[in-house]
Amino acid sequence: MTKLAKPANPSQRDAWLDKRLPDVEQVRPGLWSIPVPIPINPLRYVLVYALEHPGGVTIIDAGWNTDEAYDALAAGLATAGYQITDIQAVLVTHIHPDHYGLAGRIRENTGAWIGLHPADAALVHDRYDESAIDDLVAREGALLRRCGVPDLTAQELAGASMMIRHLVTMAVPDRLIEDGQHLDIPGWNLQARWTPGHSPGHLCFVEPTRRLLFSGDHVLSKITPIVAVHPQSAPNPLADYLDALRTIAKLDIAEVLPAHEYRFTDLADRVNYVVGHHEDRLAEVATTVGESDGMTCWDLASQLTWSRPWETIPPFMQRSANNETLAHLVWLELDGKLSRTPGEPDLWHRIR
User: Fold this and answer.
1) Quick one: what percent of the chain has pLDDT higher than 70?
2) Going along the chain, which residue ranges are E strands?
């Protein structure tokens, strides 16, 4: 059963559970939480955080590029007493469309600078430039075929994410934000923490004076973020993710401000739960593979425990589930518990 984190504001938690958009909220003096809708997505909204300082505001994440999202951000800033043109910087936790997609449009309209970690900045061209997309889709298709996805299904799934490509304004970042870097935002003691896994360059932002953690998608209050092997991932993203989780859990944090769902207070307990979830999944993967004479990743994914029956999961989410399963297989392979016979498809075996 999914364990819910302890909410910092029960009304925000209730809005999430009731499938309502939460209110624009002043979290602390000079700090605002603004829900920006992401329709046709089960996450429903991104929580954009606006940090006040002399001369304007800095925002953490932006939402994706739709008029509805832009208008919601503008309305939220108006509640706080600001306009879109008051945005001076956009700190992007990672390059997924619901966090990065609107950043370019904001820069065009305000002159604000955009900051990303170098590992995610290196992926922008191949992911979002029109000249490179076909190659990325082809690489995803090749990966899916090695996982045992039937050829026609692999072709369909490889390009599934293109349906949201138009929700991103291509924007090369103006500044690269390194691990441990102090952000020059007057009145704020904001520090960047590199937390790879969900994306290679995922960033959290820590405010140690106020004991706040802006966690992006790295740690959320209810769901666990997708950690998957794909053409742009690190070789062992699950190991990176779990290491980063354990590091973040050691921080002295009073409140976590995630990009989705609701704010919460019990960071260490939530991290322990998420780590335990992945340990359970690793054990399930190892056991299921061990009961076979050799299994493809795709067949394995269809036999694992998900939040709903496999056949009811939409194809795009089946692709994510497959690639998440592959991340667990790779972790077990590098830990010496599984081996694979390379081919098309690869076959996975338990080391006895």
Assistant:
1) 98
2) 25-28, 31-38, 44-53, 56-60, 87-91, 113-116, 175-176, 182-183, 190-194, 203-207, 212-216, 255-258, 338-341, 347-350
